[in-house]
Specification:
The complex is a heterodimer of chains A (about 270) and B (about 325).
Chain A: H1 2-17, E1 20-31, E2 34-45, E3 49-53, H2 60-66, E4 77-85, E5 88-89, H3 97-103, E6 104-107, H4 118-128, H5 134-147, H6 151-154, H7 167-179, E7 185-189, H8 197-210, E8 215-219, H9 223-229, E9 232-238, E10 244-251, H10 252-257, H11 262-268
Parallel strand pairs in A: 3-8, 3-9, 6-7, 7-8
Antiparallel strand pairs in A: 1-2, 1-4, 4-5, 9-10
Helix pairs in contact in A: 4-5, 4-7, 5-7, 7-8
Chain B: H1 3-14, H2 16-19, H3 25-56, H4 59-62, H5 65-70, E1 74-75, E2 82-83, H6 86-117, H7 120-133, H8 138-157, H9 165-189, H10 193-201, H11 206-217, H12 219-235, H13 238-243, H14 261-268, H15 277-311
Antiparallel strand pairs in B: 1-2
Classes of the chains: A alpha/beta (about 270), B mainly alpha (about 325).
């Protein structure tokens, strides 16, 4: 426990040394007439893991999906306020969503490999972005799978269906698939909620390794997980009209040991949620 | 208070009597009903095949299968009669191929548009309209082909007559479109949202997502749709009879007038003497038609099966 804490505060220091990668400023998100997010202002540090926690339906996933504009796919979704990636407003008209999503990859709650071979799953992104040379593809597939700590388990079955893997392997395949696009930010939407504890542990180890090179934002229901992996944590809740608000944001160790807001304290001590 | 009651219930249910199988009459009835219905369908199918064989095979004692299949002269009433179905076979092949080649890309494209691109409101209005088109009687499509399409084909290709294989093929492609659109749209719509999201999140465009994720994932459904469309094109009789021109010569180009196997049966069966040579020959055509559609279905099944196995869990 103590060691863990030391680790956390160490990481916090490095996190603070890093620059701001993503920022939202007074963001409101609407689905039709329903307001899903209210007045969210948040700075996400580069090369760190930021956890978004909070009760179900408080808009954690909606907030996460702001950063790669996945909310665009929902008819009637509308964003007010500023969302910046490296200081660039990603909701301004001149932004190419394809380029944005290359920089900001996403891992979903349910492992969702395509119904294709392991190889083709990882090669999907690079192929779409114009890589067609077999040798280059093989190289990037191997690199991504190694990076996702999956290579040793699948190197002999690259031509097998990605759906034939176990749940945890599938999720690491999905991570490899994201890494193959060489993003800068990886969004993870409850990436372990469909996995058993051992597979969860592997993904968490992987996340910690990846955090050295990538900015990672993870939505999680599991507060132990947030405490284990993240340097920064954002606690969200919904107001009476079910719009999500940011209650508290700060270094994970502080948020968990010394919450400033009464609601955060209630939540993390398990009084509700 | 409750205790005695509960214990008596437990005691009762522990007796052998309650464990004995009960006659669930309703269940039994439905089971046998479903079984009979299934059996009935199989009997009918076997019966059809048996009749085709019984009525059609004897022609091969008069004319060898080789002569029958590859003979180019169909003169059922001359003396002696000759039965060569190559012209019909080639006509059917040509018309079906052209109709399919035209209908599949348009149909799948339309389905992809409805499933992935169109706003829900358009999808919900357009799809029923397209499905309604499937219900237009084929004789009506024949009229349309006669009145509208054949003059057009005639003037475009400078033909003597617009009643030709091409006109029939275009009409057939229109007739198989609704079913291709409807069934492949269902298949595309059923592709899990997770796949599409994953694709978009990797930076794929809408077209790339449709082309590389949705269509492959829906391939078995789209394959079934195409098969239904091909089946419709091979089997369609009335429209072809009305617009294909009815020539008995071996067709050399799509713009030649043609008689397909189905229209040959339809136009000949009225004059054929029951049990006579022509009658047998027409049934033999029916038998070959049946074998053709069966072969198409089996091959498609195999191909799709292989595709599915490749990606199965």
């Amino acid at each position: 426990m103590n060691r863990n804490h030391a680790l956390l505060s160490n990481k916090t220091l490095t996190a603070q040394a890093c620059a701001t990668k993503l920022r939202t400023e007074k963001v409101n998100l609407y689905y039709g007439s329903f307001q899903a997010l209210r007045n969210i202002t948040l700075d996400i540090h580069a090369c760190a893991i930021t956890a978004i926690i909070g009760p179900s339906g408080c808009g954690k996933s909606s907030l996460l999906r702001l950063f790669n504009r996945m909310n665009d796919l929902i008819p009637g979704a509308r964003v007010e306020g500023n969302v910046e990636l490296d200081g660039i407003l990603i909701y301004s008209p001149g932004i190419d969503v394809v380029e944005l999503r290359k920089k900001v990859g996403m891992v979903f709650q349910k492992p969702n490999p395509f119904p294709m071979s392991v190889f083709e799953n990882v090669a999907f992104g690079p192929r779409r972005h114009g890589m067609s040379n077999r040798a280059e593809l093989e190289e990037i597939v191997e690199k991504s799978l190694r990076h996702a700590a999956l290579w040793d388990e699948v190197k002999d079955k690259l031509e097998q269906s990605g759906l034939a893997l176990s749940g945890g392997q599938q999720q690491r395949l999905c991570i490899a698939r994201v890494l193959a696009v060489e993003p800068e930010v990886i969004l993870m939407d409850e990436p372990c909620s469909a996995l058993d504890p051992l597979a969860t542990l592997k993904i968490e180890d992987l996340m910690r390794n990846l955090a050295q090179e990538y900015t990672i934002i993870i939505v999680t229901h599991n507060m132990q997980q947030a405490a284990r992996v993240s340097e920064m944590a954002a606690f969200m809740m919904m107001e009476e009209d079910r719009a999500g608000v940011l209650v508290e944001y700060g270094p994970t160790s502080e948020l968990f040991t010394n919450p400033k807001d009464k609601r955060t304290e209630d939540y993390i001590t398990g009084r509700f949620g | 208070m409750l205790k005695p009651e509960i214990s008596s219930v437990i005691a009762a249910s522990n007796t052998k009597d309650s464990l004995r199988r009960r006659l669930r009459l309703g269940e039994r009835f439905i089971e046998s009903w479903i079984f009979l219905a299934g059996l009935f369908a199989i009997i009918i199918l076997v019966g059809i095949i048996a009749i085709l064989i019984k009525e059609g095979l004897p022609i091969f004692t008069y004319s060898s299968p080789w002569q029958f299949l590859f003979g180019t002269k169909w003169y059922p009433t001359s003396e002696p009669p000759t039965f060569g179905i190559l012209p019909f076979f080639l006509s059917t092949l040509m018309i079906t191929l052209i109709a399919t080649a035209a209908a599949v890309p348009i149909g799948v494209g339309c389905a992809a548009y409805l499933a992935e691109v169109a706003p829900p409101r358009i999808r919900e209005t357009v799809k029923p309209i397209i499905e309604l088109l499937a219900g237009v009687p084929s004789v009506m499509m024949g009229f349309i082909g006669l009145m509208l399409l054949s003059p057009l084909v005639r003037s475009i290709f400078h033909l003597n007559t617009g009643l030709c294989g091409l006109t029939a093929a275009i009409m057939l492609s229109l007739m198989s479109l609704p079913i291709i659109v409807s069934v492949s749209e269902d298949a595309l719509h059923a592709v899990p949202k997770e796949f599409k999201e994953a694709s978009y999140a990797l930076g794929a465009t809408k077209w790339e997502t449709i082309r590389h994720v949705c269509i492959p994932a829906a391939l078995s459904g789209i394959g079934a749709a195409i098969m239904l469309g091909v089946g419709r094109a091979i089997g369609e009789t009335m429209t072809v009879l009305m617009v294909a021109g009815g020539a008995l010569a071996v067709p050399l180009s799509p713009t030649d007038p043609m008689t397909t196997m189905t229209s040959a049966i339809a136009s000949g069966i009225g004059n054929a003497v029951r049990g006579g040579l022509q009658y047998q020959a027409l049934f033999a055509i029916g038998l070959i038609l049946f074998i053709m559609t069966l072969a198409v279905n089996l091959i498609a099944d195999k191909v799709l099966e292989r595709q599915k196995r490749k990606f199965a869990r």
